[in-house]
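Appendix B, Record 12. Input sequence as logged:
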Amino acid sequence: MMRVKVKPELLRWALERAGRSVASLRKNFPRIDLWERGEATPTFKQLEAFAEAVFVPVGYLFLTKSSGTYAIGDKEFFGTRRNKVHRTRDRKREANS
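Logged structural output:
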């Protein structure tokens, strides 16, 4: 089983961008608290599943710092490894809040 190092700040970034919390993913990823603190590392398969759960291409989790999203109009999007597009947030709505 191959374990992979991933920066905890990138996991937090991916969670934040998807509007998810550690608690909301704990059922599927019981060690997510340890990953987020850098005390354990996920397997590559676990990281792929995590990336899909937070709508981030798995490659983004290996970057040295968080990447952005790409914008179309007032909406921000991510692609996934299955080439689906998921809206992560509405920038116009946030600006009016």
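The helical segments are 8-18, 22-25, 32-37, 44-53, 91-96.
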